[in-house]
Structure formats: structure tokens, C-alpha cells
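Hi,

I'm pasting everything inline rather than attaching a file, because the server keeps stripping attachments. The sequence lines come first, and each chain or strand is labelled.
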Amino acid sequence: MPTRRSFLHTASFAAAAAAISQIPLLRADAEPDSSLLTNANRQALERFLAAQPVLIDVVPLRTLDPSLTGRVLTHAGPPVRWPRMSGAQRGAAIAAILFEGWARNPAAAEQLAASGQVRFTPNHDHDGVGGMAGVLSPSMLVYVVRDRTSGKTTYSVHEYDALFGAYDAAALDELYRWNTLYMPVIGRAVRALGGLELKPVMSQAIQMGDDLHCRQTAASALLANQLAPAIVRTSTDALAAATLEVLAASPFLTFLPLAMGASKAALLAATGIAGSTVVTVMARNGTEVGIQVSRSGGRWFTAPAPPIDAVFFPGFGPEDASHDLGDSAITETGGLGAFAGAASPALAPEVGLTPDEFADVTAKMARITVGRHTGLVIPQLGYGPPVGIDVTLVVKTRITPVIATAVAHREPGHRIIGLGLSRIPLACFQQAAAWQP
Amino acid sequence: MPTRRSFLHTASFAAAAAAISQIPLLRADAEPDSSLLTNANRQALERFLAAQPVLIDVVPLRTLDPSLTGRVLTHAGPPVRWPRMSGAQRGAAIAAILFEGWARNPAAAEQLAASGQVRFTPNHDHDGVGGMAGVLSPSMLVYVVRDRTSGKTTYSVHEYDALFGAYDAAALDELYRWNTLYMPVIGRAVRALGGLELKPVMSQAIQMGDDLHCRQTAASALLANQLAPAIVRTSTDALAAATLEVLAASPFLTFLPLAMGASKAALLAATGIAGSTVVTVMARNGTEVGIQVSRSGGRWFTAPAPPIDAVFFPGFGPEDASHDLGDSAITETGGLGAFAGAASPALAPEVGLTPDEFADVTAKMARITVGRHTGLVIPQLGYGPPVGIDVTLVVKTRITPVIATAVAHREPGHRIIGLGLSRIPLACFQQAAAWQP
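And the predicted assembly:
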């Protein structure tokens, strides 16, 4: 809980605003410091900021990418094989195999996964993202998000308990209900609306205390408001009411896949610019963390996944925790999450900080970015969050990106066990900085 | 807009937290200062804080009070007769007369109102509240809010353009649409739900940047989410979709009548306690401001309505503005609005302040209250807003309550022209402090 002391002895919102005000930025009223903002990085930032991500559809994953058919599962983070896979990811794979009907029980599913007959491939290698374990199977319905400016398209998925590694009856039931009931309802509504612009929702939500990674309360409510009339018009009463009920009941996570999709689509637009040292991917699989950088396209720079400094739910402790996990760090890569910590005083205690300390995180992140988000304003600061992580600035300052993250269990079969903060290892950035084309 | 300067040179969130931490409060961990918190005021505060306001129904106004039948209109603020009535209130009366069909055109409506054949009576004299002009007619559908703890019941009304004084075709159309379409839909949903608890919505919204007077963005979205499944189940698709669309499109004001109703119901519970100098009503009619105090029940203590320090919408200026208007100051009387300014950095620039200055308002208000709200927490502060205005503290400190308010036009026939801040005149409190039973 926030303490009185912290408010009386610090002025971190001021520090955060001051730090952000010193970022070179892409606006007419500020002269960029050319030593920091190279033309290549400027171009990457401009493409990121110009993105207009739109939720355009809900489709089975396999229809998006011909390579994602047959016995293939995607996963979060850089590439990893079954023997080294984290517990949560193995649990999620068991759930996905049972969901697809490739095995009849968890033991058979595990055996199949270990047999080498299931191919594993990172979401990011298919221009997609998945929360936590991020294990998606070909039949799963995914959100399709397109950047209208660049045309870049990505996918993301609802934050199921299965993605934390649970594969019991309730976790599978959740997968079935969403894939047969709620996602089709949402898909019909989205198509009837001709797509749903995500930036306006995110812009409002940042003014309503969401960090848009671990807190999505406002964005989820606004999303449900936007979808509701179209849901009523395109689904039966029973389906519409059930879907609206589930949307109202799970505000914590509902918007997360869309914040991830919006971030990924915008960062895809900033990918592959010769000479740009802007980070376009940060992702974790529980075993390793990997980043990608604009100039080096889809190349991974990896390091062991660190433990998370967590606030555990009752009954759990550090000995239970998975190491850092999930593609959801794409939100921080796009200036959300911990980078927007100053926006979210209500989240701060849930990740173990005071509101001031969370604002300090925003201030620190401003030292490793080449721009600030011009499409979002944190009302406490009068500025958007810092965005455009530069590997050279990370190496120079040794300030590594902070991620506000959910915590999974280290063993398969569990649900979320806490929230906390992690840092992307310096080694990733050192390798990326040393890379030669 | 917030300026960088203000963040670097002030620490008003700290000051606000410090000020609130020094309020005597009703918690085991703090010893109340008996010189400030008399037994009577403690009792008033306890009853206010114990309130559990619930939206229970939507009904025509006349069904709530037998005296509100025939040619009678209620209005905001203390009693006022037609000749002295403010322009916005006269415009709202014309709209209400046309809505009821008591006259065929605006000129005839005005003539009728001026003839003395229409009785005017304050909402508060009927335990109700109405935003801005607050002019309600017997057939208008009102929200019914009941405090489950005390059983006290109040009414409030949607924030129509007519309540700002507009009586053109669009303003009347809005009245008709809400009274024949949307309010009945909401009423059916509320009854199907068995009532809708308002405190949880308000508690969430205060953590999402609402002040719950001039900014209701979060509360309105959460309300629509809560109502949506029941709306689908109890109305036709066309009506349900149309209502959900209008709820999603007007987040600025949708929840305001419910924040007012929740505040009024809780303050009714704190009314009529012998010896209590806690303020239970602050209300303005554009001509006069009136307050009521627990110990003196429904007695008004009045003073001329002051001008508003406003941020005007384009095309309007101080010469156009009505003086202070509306029962909505019941929200400040209950610790919301400007009293919760620290919660709402996104609203601050809309009322002409930086977020720090708005937090300063919260700090100042803490000097004239006998408690803090234990049902709400402002995440930036770690405390609920100050609540329980004590007339003796106002007189002693000469710090008068600040109201965050919408601004109406001084002439009939207009809509909202701005937002701003007003202060309840000291004279009201001096009279109330001098009152002898």
C-alpha cells in the first residue's frame, strides 16, 4: 500500500515529467539532439508513432499463416525446445494439445509434446504475440490487429488461465467457451463495426489509470462499451448477454491482448530500418529472454530469463515462481506497462511500489528511449510515456527496461500467482549493440 | 494544459496527502481530536460513511411524492420565484412545460410560467436533486437511489441539454427519447438486477481519474458494463442496441445523476442530528446559493450566487455565463468533485488548473472537513477525499468549499458553455453557524 512517508519525501511525478521533457522528440517545438536521435532511429520512431492500429477481425490462427497448420504450437519469447521449456509453457502446451484433441489426457499430451511430433515456434516469428506462455494452437481464435498506416498485421489471444499453465477441466472449459461462444460474438461485432480503432481507447485509458499491461480496467470497460451495441445487433440475446457479462466481469485482462496487438502492429511498422538501434521486440519464454532490434529484423538476442520481483498472491512465494515469461513485454516495447507507470497509481501497490516509485520507473525509462509517445498523454505529467528503447542508450547507461508483469508458476498446472516487476537482461542489449550487418 | 513548471516547483500531491492524514477520522488507528469532531458530528459522519446507496428503480417523478402532481416544476438550489429566476432555469422551465404539453410554444410556456399558474419548488425540499437548472416535471422519469443502510431515498435525473436552459427541437427530442426509450430500458435492467450498488462503481471510478462531478468517464463506462447484460435480457434488440450506443457515446455525464443520488442519499442519512454542524446540502439556483446543515434539517442559509471562474468553450466568455447553478454540488458535499480533485489529473486542465493545483484544492478542503471518505481511496494519496464539511471550520478558517462545475448561459435557450470552479459564499456558513434551535 502507498505509505504517507513516500508522499512527503519525494516528488517523483515532477522527476518523471522533467526526465520525459528532456527526451529528444518528434515535434516541431523541440530540436532533436542528433547524437541521440539518428535519422534511422527517427524514422523508426516516426513509423511507430504514425501507426493506427485497428482490431479488424477474429479468426482461427491457422488461417493467418499457412505454416501454422498441422501439429504446431506457437509460444512466447525466443525459440525454445521442449526439454528446456518452462513449466508454465509446458502446462500451456498440454492445454493446447487437449484443446485440439491431439491427445486424450494430460499424460498423453505431455508424451506427445516430448516426442518431437509437435513443432514449437515463437509467436514473434509469425508476427504475432501471446500473453504469458503464449502457447497457441492452429484452431484457436485470435484477434487480428492491423496498422492502417503501414498495413502491418499481427495477432494476439485472450489471456486464458491455460496461458499460465493450467490444464484442468475449468481451464479447458474457459478455452472452449471463449473459442466457441465469446470470441465468435466479438468477431461478428468487430466485423459489423468495420473494425475498432484501438488508439483512442488506449489514449482514454492512459488518462484513466491504466498502464495497459497489468492494469486494463478502463480500456476493457471502454472496449465493452464500444462493442456492446454491435454485439446486440449481430448475436442472439443469450449469446450477447453472456458475452457482455463475461466482458464486464474480467476487466483486469480483457484489453491486454489488444494493447499487445496494437503495440506489435506499430512496432512491426518500425522493423527492418537499416541502422536503427530501436528495440522492436522484448519477449520472454520463462527460460530465456530475447529482444529484436529494428536494423537486425527478426534476429533474436537472448539471455537467461531473470526471476521476477513479485507481490505474490496468498499461498505463493518466490520458490513457486516461474522466471520471466510472456510476449506481453511488447507493451513496454511500445511505451506502455512500466514505461507508463506514472499513469497508474492504482496499480503501483499491486506490483510492490508506491505511486511515486512507479513514476520513478517512467523517469528512468526516459533515459533509454529516443522519443515520447505523442498519441498518449499521462495526465499527471502532461507528456506521453517514453518510447523507442535504444540499445546503445541501454548499454551506455546500464539502465535496463523494466517490465510490469504477471507471474506464472514454475510447474505446469497452475494459474496466475502474483504481479511484479522484472528487467530485461543487459546482455541482450550488449549483443544487439555489437551486431554487425 | 499542465505546465512543466508546475511539476518542478510544487509537491501538491504530497501536501494533499499530508493534509488529509491530519483529519480526525473514524478509524481505530487514529484518535479523533475531540475539539474538532464533536459527538454529533461524529454521528453525522458515521451515518454518511455507513450509507450503501443503490440505484433501485426508474419511475415518473410524480409517483415519488404526492405533492409533485399537477402544474408543478422542481428546480435546483434554494427557493426562487419566476421574476428572480436565472436564465438557464427559465429556459429549463420552458422546456419542461413544453415536454409536459402545458403550452404549445416557448412564448406560451414562458407566459404560463410567469403567470403564477406553475408552482416552483426546490428538489431538495422533496429529498431530490437535479443537475444544473434542475427543473423536473411530474412526468419525467427519474433515477431512484436508496441508501440500504438508512432506508433514505432520493431521486435524480439525466443531465439533459434542457437542464442547461435549451428548449429547441433537439433539446426536446432528447427529453422525449430518454423518457420514452432509454430510461425505460435502464429501468427494466435495474429492476431485473434487483438494484445496482453505486459505491463499488464510485470506488473504482475514483481510482480511474473521475472526480465524480465534472468527470464521470470511468463511472459511466463501468455503469454501462454492469447494465449491458440485463439490458439485453429485458429489452428488444433495437432498444437495447440504441440504449447501449447512447450510453457509450455520453460518458461525460451519464453517471453524474447517480453520483448525485448516491451523495444525496448518504447525506439524507446524516441529516437532522441535534448539535451537528456538518453541511448536508450545498445547492445553487443561478440567483442564490443555499446550504443546509445537519442540526437545522431542511432550513436554507442563502447568499447571492457567485460568478464561476470558468474555462469557456469556443465562442463564449464571462459576459455569457450564468452565476453558480445546480444541485450537483451535492457531490462536493459528499467529498466528490473538487474535494476529490487530486484523483482527477485529466480533469484539471478542463477546469483551468494544473493537476498539482487540483490536488491543492483537495488539501485545502481537508481543513474544513471533520473526516475523510473511508469508502473511496484516491490512489495518488493513499487516502479517501475529505468529507463532512463543518460550518464552524469554514467560518473559523474562512476557507469556503470549492465546486467543480459546468457553466450554463445567463440567457434561456443555450447549452453548456464551459467548465470551471466556484466557491460557496462564506455568508451561508456564517448564518448557519449563528443559527439557534
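Chain A has 14 helices and 15 strands.

If the labels don't parse on your end, tell me and I'll reformat.
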